[in-house]
Amino acid sequence: MNPAVPEASLTALMHLLTEQALLSMGVPHPMVKEVPPANPAVARFYVDLLTVLKEKTEGQRTELETSQLDEILYQLRMRVMDLKPAVETPGSPK
Length: 94
Prior knowledge:
Layout: H1 10-24, H2 40-56, H3 63-81
Helix pairs in contact: 1-2, 1-3, 2-3
Pfam families: DUF1844
InterPro entries: DUF1844 (IPR014995)
Organism: Candidatus Geothrix skivensis
């Protein structure tokens, strides 16, 4: 296996989805020169995907994977709450 490519695992999938969520929140990645503006709807989509992953793998994860996934979801949910909505409806408080 190429040392630059990690082994396929649940942890690798969780980290891949986490990176995409963070990029969608406008958090810069060290390997990406330009970060597109934050897109809250896409960020929430990736958090939702991680939530589905958690639900569908219930009882299948190791304790370490479970604690990592719980921590990832907590941190991402805290960040996503700080994002402005993608589309504001007229009359909604700002």
